[in-house]
Amino acid sequence: MRKIPGAIIFGVLAVTVAAVALGLEPWHGLAAPPPSLAPTFLKMDIAGVFQVGLVTIVLTLLLVTILDTAGTLIGVARQAGFLDQEGRLPRARQAFLADSGGAMLGAALGTSTATAYIESAAGVEEGGRTGLTAVFVAGFFLLALFLAPLAQTVPLYATAPALLFVAFLMAASLGALRFDDATDYIPALIIVLMMPLSYSIATSIGLGFIAYVAVKAMAGRLKEVNAAVAIIAAALLLKLIFA
Fold first, then answer.
1. Structure pTM?
2. Cα–Cα distance between 202 and 135 in angstroms, integer?
């Protein structure tokens, strides 16, 4: 509220220092050499991917990743004021290429999916809106490889308030909903409600897709549904039923 740069980080650090001082969290040290990548680097079974039993799993993970990324990029871009007048993300192709490239590189290194994260909205709130911000973040992540003990000292309850604040920031997007059209705002609110209940952005967006098509159909306005949206909704419905 006081527009202090770095306020979120200062809050995390203050809680961490208090936790260590009060004996609620042990001090794990400052730095340590990063572990070897040998156990995970390029440890991929490419031939195994083409087994019939894995096709469904691969397609499911692909769909979930696309929805998760799309929801995150749109949310963060709206927070940064990057969306155009029609609510579309300019240069979306480049953004998705960067995200998919990170996901593939992360997989080759043996890490979990390296993708866009909704926590970036906190950085946007602090003023980060250019590619230079991402370069600095990457540099700090590289430094974090050697400062893992320090990062481990930060308790979860120190960072949780920052995520809650991100939720407050994203709630401002609700003002863009068309509350004069139930076929628009009902699916959108289903997405909002299901995010905390399902613990998954991708699942909640999928349920929103399904609800959107269903509500439009019941209202006799199925012609308004884009073919791609209908296909995605059908695929997600089948995933929920059979997965």
1. 0.62
2. 27
